[in-house]
Amino acid sequence: MVLVDKSAFCGGNSTKATSGINGAETSTQKTKKVEDSVELFTNDTLKGGAKRPELVKVLCGNSGADVDWLVDKFDLDMSLLARLGGHSAPRTHRGKERFPGMTITYALIQMVEKISERSDLARIINKAKVKQLICKNGAVCGLTYEKKGKEFTEEGPVILATGGFGADFTENSLLAKYRPDLMHLPTTNGDHTTGDGIKMGEAIGARSIDLEWVQVHPTGLVEPDDPEAKIKFLAAEALRGVGGLVINANGERFCNELGRRDYVTGEMWKSKPPYRLILNKAASDEIIWHCKHYTGRGVMKFYKSGEELCKEMGVPLTTLEAAHQKHYEASVKQEKDPEGGTFPAYPSGKSWDEPSGKTGVGKKFFHNVIDGSQVKTEPFYSAIITPVIHYCMGGLEIDVNSNVVDQKGKAIPGLYAAGEVAGGVHGNNRLGGNSLLDCVVFGRVAGKACAQYMLGDKVKETDLKELSGGGVGAPAAKL
Fold first, then answer.
1. What is the pLDDT of residues 366-410, one digit of tens each?
2. Which fold has domain 2-213+393-468?
3. Is 240 a catalytic residue?
4. 217 part of the active site
5. What is the pLDDT of residues 143-182, one digit of tens each?
6. Residue 476 burial (CB < 10 Å; 0-12/13-18/19+)?
7. pLDDT for 110-125, tens place per residue?
8. Measured between alpha carbons, how far is 472 from 3 in angstroms, rounded to an integer?
9. Which of 81, 133, 302, 318: CA 20 to 30 A from 94?
10. Domain locations in the chain?
11. Which of 23, 28, 85, 86 is nearest to 60 (CA)?
């Protein structure tokens, strides 16, 4: 296995994933007595925007086992759960420290490094840009890449994991072609995210799908010293999952914080900026590593009291108190009479929450709520937020085996895709926590299918600990 990456280090945007990875019927859920099912997760994902049930069945059906695989095989901490927007149960897993994308990606890379140190079964080539796919008799049989001005060739089937195109603002980019209306927005994507894999696939006749569906995330973090920066840090959706509230310039709530990302962004554009994401003490304590990390980077600020926060915002304390009181009262009514609310709720049922209910997407899940009387002396973490280009739902069309298909919908032998480069998995909107899951699930599916394609009935089970000499935590091999 040869891993070719044009960046100086591996991981891509996955290292930035901040909220977690979804899984239904996982060991963590069972330990915490969280009721969830593959069927419920599947329904949420389809309602959230996905359009191809056969791919959603793979994504959600493999989720529990694949999250447990990360925990068991890589000794990862995935012990914390959050409920993100559009989810009917807490199923987004993360650990107590570091961003979950960083945790997962680094562990996978370290495992490959360990194996490469001990044998020729794996190699990693960085600072190498793949130029084209090599085809023979309709099958992909290798690629060419450029490194230090020289061109090299690697032979064998190819798995593309090159991400989307959310940072390519050039006039001939896929973004300019399919979503020119978004070119003015900032992005959370690293500058390496330029759609290379999609373009290479299309060049050999692969079919792309849903390229017009680009997700604009509502909570890009605005750096006060550089508010116009084109690349921004992302405020994890988990911040809202633990109880964070979104307020406008007047200190008022105006949406369901746990609605779909495209919905929250849309409501922000209707309201008055600047927008803030605020977390009370209970909410911030539940996700304190993130809060301290953002504060250290200067994109979030700690306030000793709600009164102090209101002074900086320039709004009356009574306004923020009223917003919290209404939110609190709605949460009490929702608990007492979950189906008797005045407004339609999302993803289903009824809601008592007026600010979100008036938008047609009422809030029904409440967490770490405080009443208005607590606001004056309550400590808060707060960040100014803005909509940002975040994720490309479209890409090269794949089937249930992660095979990229041609213009007629037939699998191209020897070519696979996983992660953001693959299209059709999420439809017109991706639910939070499904991106890392997409990478892991379809990455494993692609790996197995590719091995089967290469080896046929000679495929056999392998042990990562044995191949790596003891796993990620083992000492480095002596060369």
1. 999 999 999 999 999 999 999 999 999 999 999 999 999 999 999
2. FAD/NAD(P)-binding domain (3.50.50)
3. yes
4. yes
5. 999 999 999 999 999 999 999 999 999 999 999 999 999 9
6. exposed
7. 999 999 999 999 999 9
8. 18
9. 302
10. 2-213+393-468, 223-388
11. 23
Phi, psi of 114, deg, nearest 5? -60, -45
DSSP string over 235-285: PPTHHHHTT-EEE-TTS-B-S-TTS-HHHHHHHHHHS-SSEEEEE-HHHHH
Residue ranges of E strands in 306-397? 343-344, 350-351, 380-392, 395-397
- Burial (Cβ within 10 Å: 0-12, 13-18, ≥19) of residue 180: exposed
CA–CA dist 218, 9 (Å, integer): 28
Q: Is 108 exposed, middle or buried (0-12, 13-18, 19+ CB in 10 A)?
A: buried
Query: Which of left, alpha, beta for 475 (phi over 0: left; psi -120 to 50: alpha)?
Result: beta
Q: What is the pLDDT of residue 244?
A: 98
Q: d(Cα 127, Cα 120) in Å, to the nearest integer? A: 20
CB 252 within 8 A of CB 267: no
The single residue of 217, 290, 327, 430 carrying the catalytic annotation is 217
User: Residue 390 to residues 185, 196, 272, 276: CA-CA distances in angstroms?
Assistant: 10, 17, 22, 19
Q: Return the closest-CA partner of residue 315 out of 248, 380, 245, 250.
A: 250
Both tokens assigned to 327: 């939110």
Residue 41 near residue 313 (C-beta atoms within 8 A): no
Amino acid 479: pLDDT: 46
Note whether 141 and 135 are within 8 A (CB). yes
And the tokens for 441? 């699930």
Find tokens 């330029």 and name the residue.
Answer: 194
End-to-end CA distance of the chain: 20
Rounded to whole angstroms, how far apart are CA atoms 150 and 132? 14
**Is the torsion defined by CA of 227, 229, 233, 236 positive or negative?**
positive
| Cβ neighbours for 240, distance < 8 A, ≥ 6 positions apart | 84, 85, 219, 246, 257, 258, 277
166: CB partners within 8 A, 6+ apart: 175, 187, 188, 189, 193, 214, 389, 390, 391, 392
State the fold for domain 223-388.
Answer: Flavocytochrome C3; Chain A, domain 1 (3.90.700)
CA Rg, the chain, in Å? 23
Active-site annotation holder among 83, 87, 240, 324: 240
Residues in the chain: 479
> Contact, 217 vs 164, CB < 8 A?
no
Q: For 478, which DSSP code? A: P
Residue 213 gets the label, from left (phi > 0), alpha (psi -120 to 50) or beta, of: beta
Q: Look up residue 80 and give its two tokens.
A: 């914390």
Cα separation, 449 vs 435, in Å, equals 21
